[in-house]
Design a protein that fits this description.
The complex is a heterodimer of chains A (179) and B (374).
Chain A (H helix, E strand, L loop, with lengths): L1 E9 L4 H14 L3 E6 L9 E9 L11 E6 L2 H7 L3 E10 L14 E5 L1 H8 L5 H13 L4 H11 L8 H15 L1
Helix pairs in contact in A: 1-4, 1-5, 3-4, 4-6, 5-6
Chain B lengths: L1 H5 L6 E4 H11 L4 E4 L6 H10 L6 E4 L3 H13 L4 E5 L1 H16 L4 E7 L15 H5 L10 E3 L4 H18 L2 E7 H5 L1 E4 L50 H19 L3 E4 L6 E4 L2 H16 L4 E6 L1 E3 L3 H5 L1 H4 L5 E6 L5 H9 L4 E6 L8 H11 L1
Helix pairs in contact in B: 2-3, 2-7, 4-5, 10-14
Amino acid sequence: MTEKIIIAGAGGQGIMLLGKVLAEGAMREGKYVTWLPSYGAEVRGGTAHCMVIISDEPIGSPYIDKADTLIIMNAPSLNKFRDRIKNKGLLIVNSSLAPEAGVASEGRHILRCPFTDLALKMGNIKIANMIALGCFIGKKKTVNSRSLLEVIGSIAPEHKKGLIEINQKALEEGMELGG
Amino acid sequence: MKSKSRQKEIKKILMTGNEAIAQGAIDAGCRFYAGYPITPQNELTAYMARCMPDSGGVFVQSESEVAAINMVFGASCAGARSMTSSSSPGISLKQEGISYIAGAELPAVVVNIMRGGPGLGNIWPSQSDYFQATRGGGHGDYHSIVLAPSSVQEAYDLMFLAFDLADNYRNPVMVLGDGILGQMMEPLQVTSHKSQVTGQKAVVCLPIGKATSQKTWALTGCEGRNPNIIKSFRMKEGDLEKLNLALQKKYKAIRQKEARFESLFLEDAKIIIVAYGTMARIAKGAVGMLRAKGKKAGLLRPITLWPFPEKVFKDLQARNSKLKTLLVTEMSYGQMLEDVKLALDGKLKVEFLGRAGGGVPTEEDIIRKAGKIL
């Protein structure tokens, strides 16, 4: 099994964190994993992306040309990465911020979910990333949800412990969308 | 399942290559770090700023790259395991200091997380500093030992070797990575230090007034002994030639003993892909994909770029008569390529695939090129 995922959105949407939680969850399950960020002159409000590869075998290139799964959190990222998906790949789109998926659906599975609206409804716009992550693993089951809940529980610094529960709930909410 | 058995292994942490190099240096006994920020190696400097004081060492954010390498010169004179890091343009600035360190026969570790050049270039991954790293870089007839990790784990592991080789040969050691290696995260298993060269416990830092048998040359205050002198300025007739001859003798010993490489399928390959660092892991992926299609590809990955592992190249033909071509691939327009050709001495066909200035050859590019050759 090798799963190549590109995650893209706006700076400040927690794109890197989404990738890190996924990567660390995979590591805890004993899988090989690489996480490669976009590290240019990124600014809040600009686009940001990271590439995560999860595999049972050692990983060659950490760079992804065509992804198995594309997780898109805003419209500019959709424009930038729309062609970077394999035939029969999975496209997960945050329909709150990228309402027109604008990608031919033949040969691709598309999941359109309003992650940002759902996050607002749960009371914190910042958890849209965890809902999207939940949606991905609910659909693909690449990593066990228990591992990810553990990671969320362990990576929050002391003064942010209060945020663990809502992020874990967000992950679970997302899993229902994907599953 | 394979992954199940791995669950029982010692706990791993997810880390960037830059952070792994910093942690590896600290675990290998580095107790002095000076550096000036530059992308894509900033996480290394930041990690040192955060962790070096708690490890009982010294962290200095210097006013320039030139200052940093000269601070390393000073700390090394005093007997500390010392290091600086930068990225390509910053490493160019350090060259004078590296030459002085080589001339004064001091141990020091310099990390170069390469970015695109020439000039200020850009911040994307590159391997265009190979010539600079392996041919000395600064003025004078000298060599740095050059190590090229290709994973986060290896970046950590090679720091132990880097400091050991620096101390053993009293010579600068360069660890050569690129933006991808520095920025990417992979699981890392932290180990405890055992000298890979001597098996002895390394001298980390000498307290004032206490020279040990391992660093008798260090400047620790000369109470109870004659003063030690460390310098690279040798005006007396014949002195500098004597130093050069001693250096050449040292380099010969390093060439004989310290060349390291990794290889795959050398015995039956019809084509061998040659690559180092990040390009080697991309090449390894390509070799796996070619093998899956029944194409007999192999891999040769130099781990030491200087000394270059010449012998394995010279022996290739005798080991495998079916081998026709080597395909060298780099994030440059052909620098290690020259060492491969020198080692082969015209005996096998050598092809090249390279990009630079931010471009990275992909697994598919390598497979396409290999397919044409086969």
